[in-house]
């Protein structure tokens, strides 16, 4: 099956089969897929909570306007961005660059340091609104990659913005961790009763979507 076939197979699942659980092996693979997402400056200023506990899922349900995917999925991925970037957050990641690239043939600590100072100037120089917006965008890139990965593995998912971020943050204790919830991806397996799987995909025609110049 080609990737295009997988993307035609996927749809925003509204009803999951509550009896089916994604295996640990597949979750490990999905973690690797989302971990490999690109991010601006390569700094990955987000954390991804993976929730399986039914009590916790049910607690979150009202904060997602009772959209039952939250409770019925196998694993609920909650993408959370940093609320604010501190210099120390950049330093932590720059240490990773040093650590992981030290063995590269052309590794230069000095050029990584100069990369870090460019990142600090750009990111710490943003006003609050711009930084918040920029941090959220990073989550969406990871979300997209995870969704495509799921489809490739024939695992169902539903991207979700329909939830009250403040309430999620309170329930998950995110504020004290300098985090805020941005977007959700419940994953699992479609129920046979989910009518949406039979609907024809609606997308813009090419002439409205692409400009070939
Ligand atoms: C960022 C984002 C947020 C979405 N939020 C919700 C949501 O809260 N609830 C829901 O049922 N579907 C949600 N959707 C699913 C879209 O409605 C769906 O992807 C779109 O209609 C296209 O259909 P398809 O994904 O089945 O091809 C969301 C999709 C995206 C990309």
Task: Draw up the topology in text.
Layout: H1 3-9, H2 24-35, E1 46-51, H3 54-60, H4 69-72, E2 75-82, H5 87-101, H6 109-124, H7 128-152, E3 156-157, H8 165-172, E4 179-188, H9 206-209
Antiparallel strand pairs: 1-2, 2-4, 3-4
Helix pairs in contact: 2-7, 5-6
This protein binds flavin mononucleotide (FMN).
Q: Which ligands appear in the coordinates?
A: flavin mononucleotide
Unreliable spans:
none
Relative helix content: 40-55%
**How many strands in all?**
4
Spatially, the strands of the biggest sheet line up as: 1-2-4-3
By CATH reckoning, the class would read Alpha Beta
Q: What's the SSE pattern?
A: HHEHHEHHHEHEH
Measured on Cα atoms, how large is the radius of gyration? 19 Å
Q: How many helices does DSSP assign?
A: 9
The CATH topology turns out to be NADH Oxidase
* Mean pLDDT over the full residue set: 97
Structural class: alpha+beta
Roughly what fraction of the amino acids lie in strands?
A: 5-15%
From the N-terminal CA to the C-terminal CA, the straight-line distance is 32 Å
Major sheet: 4 strands, antiparallel
Q: How many separate domains?
A: 1
Give the gist of this structure.
The protein is an alpha+beta fold.
Structure, described:
- This protein has helices at residues 3-9, 24-35, 54-60, 69-72, 87-101, 109-124, 128-152, 165-172, 206-209, and strands spanning 46-51, 75-82, 156-157, 179-188.
- The protein has a four-stranded antiparallel beta sheet with strand order 1-2-4-3, with helices on both faces.
- The protein is an alpha+beta fold.
- The mean pLDDT is 97.
């Amino acid at each position: 099956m080609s990737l295009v076939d997988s993307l035609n197979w996927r749809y925003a699942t509204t009803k999951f089969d509550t009896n089916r659980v994604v295996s640990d092996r597949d979750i490990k693979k999905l973690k690797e897929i989302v971990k490999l997402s690109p991010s601006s400056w390569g700094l990955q200023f987000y954390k991804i909570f993976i929730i399986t506990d039914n009590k916790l899922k049910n607690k979150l349900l009202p904060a997602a306007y009772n959209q039952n995917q939250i409770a019925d999925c196998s694993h609920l991925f909650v993408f959370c961005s940093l609320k604010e970037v501190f210099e120390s957050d950049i330093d932590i990641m720059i240490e990773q660059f040093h650590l992981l690239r030290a063995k590269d043939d052309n590794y230069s600590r000095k050029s990584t340091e100069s990369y870090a100072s460019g990142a600090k100037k750009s990111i710490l120089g943003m006003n609050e609104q711009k930084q918040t917006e920029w941090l959220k965008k990073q989550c969406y890139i990871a979300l997209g990659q995870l969704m495509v990965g799921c489809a490739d593995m024939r695992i169902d998912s539903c991207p979700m913005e329909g939830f009250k971020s403040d309430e999620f943050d309170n329930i998950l204790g995110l504020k004290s961790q300098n985090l805020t919830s941005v977007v959700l991806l419940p994953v699992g397996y479609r129920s046979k009763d989910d009518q949406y799987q039979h609907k024809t995909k609606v997308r813009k025609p090419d002439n409205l979507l692409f400009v070939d110049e």
